[in-house]
């Protein structure tokens, strides 16, 4: 999560942000095609916009409609941008922890420059917000592709069928998204069904990067800043103990999420503090001793991989490369 860079270090002298233009929301990502300040005026569907997120929002072209969901740091709305349907996330101001709100906004942009079929694409983001009653508590706006209107949690605990082949497809989609993130040394750090969007084409896309970190290139991959946290039921035990963050934390969370896809059950029930203590001190994990895992070779293979994913020692967990290789070898069920 990079700290905000003063606009004067990014723009020519005498040129500053305005509500009409938007604000520089992160260090610029430059390549041969230009920078994120070069925003097409007609539509965001050009070649540049398809590769890069923009630090400019044209507010006259943005229209929000119904809410799609909300979380600890913001709400997501369905909207129209240049006559295209999009998702709009408004990061809200938190009176109790203003720093965490700002960190959450910057964390959302850690993967904004990446393009992958299993990641929700960021189109534009800004901290320069029009002053009106709709934005009273808004400290930042992020415009994203509308990847779908359902998340994986709604699918898992809904009524529609979730056969083995579909379970395996979903797990591969999530694994490919994490593999791509990890190749760029980015940890999502809040992998759970609610943060996975299921598209109309039945593909899974990772969303909500508000807890993500850009990690170092060597050693234990120490983070550049303090980790914001995540969801305790899916958080790796080393993070619960306050130890160094590594990419293997996502492998643990993937394991819990995959277990939910297979069983359609909640991983834990009971008091939060009791669960945290049992996970850290007694290696408590979701049960894998039922018929789902015991009565078929597919289930037994899943059980073996799950146990490896949520090993208490992060160095004993597989990488996402290794895990995806194993998933690709699994037969259809």
What is this structure's SSE topology?
Layout: H1 47-51, E1 62-70, E2 74-81, E3 84-92, H2 98-108, E4 122-126, E5 138-145, E6 150-151, H3 152-156, H4 164-183, E7 186-187, E8 196-198, E9 204-206, E10 213-214, H5 237-240, H6 248-263, H7 272-282, H8 291-294, H9 297-309, H10 320-329
Antiparallel strand pairs: 1-2, 2-3, 3-5, 4-5, 6-8, 7-10, 8-9
What does this structure look like?
By secondary structure, this protein is an alpha+beta fold. It contains ten helices and ten strands. Helix 4 packs antiparallel against helix 10. 40% of the residues are buried.
Q: Key features?
A:
single chain; 333 residues; alpha+beta; five-stranded antiparallel sheet; three-stranded antiparallel sheet; 10 strands; 30% helix; 15% strand; globular; disordered N terminus
Give a brief outline of the structure.
This protein is of the alpha+beta class. It has helices at 47-51, 98-108, 152-156, 164-183, 237-240, 248-263, 272-282, 291-294, 297-309, 320-329; strands at residues 62-70, 74-81, 84-92, 122-126, 138-145, 150-151, 186-187, 196-198, 204-206, 213-214.
Task: Give the structural class.
Answer: alpha+beta
Q: How would you sum up the global shape?
A: globular
What would you report as the Rg, rounded to the nearest angstrom? 20 Å
Low-confidence residue ranges: 1-51
Major sheet: size, sense and barrel closure?
A: 5 strands, antiparallel
Distance between the termini: 41 Å
The string of secondary-structure elements, in order, is HEEEHEEEHHEEEEHHHHHH
Tell me the number of helical segments per DSSP (H or I, 4 or more residues long).
10
**Mean pLDDT over the full residue set:** 82
* Spatial sequence of strands, sheet with the most strands: 1-2-3-5-4
Helix content: 25-40%
């Amino acid at each position: 999560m990079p700290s905000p860079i003063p606009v004067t270090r990014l723009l020519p002298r005498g040129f500053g942000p305005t509500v009409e233009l938007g604000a520089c929301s992160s260090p610029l990502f430059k390549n041969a095609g230009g920078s994120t300040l070069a925003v097409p005026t007609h539509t965001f569907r050009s070649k540049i916009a398809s590769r890069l997120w923009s630090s400019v929002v044209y507010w006259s072209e943005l229209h929000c409609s119904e809410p799609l969901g909300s979380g600890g740091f913001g709400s997501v709305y369905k909207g129209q941008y240049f006559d295209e349907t999009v998702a709009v996330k408004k990061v809200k101001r938190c009176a109790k922890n203003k720093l965490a709100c700002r960190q959450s906004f910057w964390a959302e942009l850690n993967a904004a420059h990446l393009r992958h079929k299993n990641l929700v694409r960021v189109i534009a983001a800004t901290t320069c917000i029009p002053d009106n009653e709709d934005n009273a508590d808004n400290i930042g706006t992020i415009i994203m592709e509308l990847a779908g209107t359902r998340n994986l949690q709604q699918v898992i605990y809904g009524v529609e069928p979730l056969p083995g082949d579909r379970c395996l497809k979903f797990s591969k989609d999530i694994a490919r998204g994490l593999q791509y993130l990890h190749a760029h040394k980015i940890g999502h750090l809040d992998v759970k069904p609610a943060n996975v969007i299921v598209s109309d084409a039945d593909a899974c896309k990772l969303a909500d990067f508000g807890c993500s970190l850009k990690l170092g290139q060597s050693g234990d991959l120490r983070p550049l800043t303090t980790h914001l946290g995540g969801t305790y039921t899916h958080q790796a035990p080393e993070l619960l103990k306050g130890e160094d963050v590594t990419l293997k934390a996502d492998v643990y969370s993937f394991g819990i999420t995959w277990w939910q896809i297979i069983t359609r059950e909640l991983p834990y029930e009971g008091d939060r503090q009791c669960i945290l203590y049992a996970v850290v001190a007694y290696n408590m994990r979701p049960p894998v001793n039922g018929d789902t895992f015991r009565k078929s070779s597919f289930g037994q293979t899943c059980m073996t991989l799950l146990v490896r994913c949520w090993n208490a020692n992060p160095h004993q967990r597989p990488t996402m490369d290794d895990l995806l290789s194993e998933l690709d070898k699994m037969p259809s069920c």
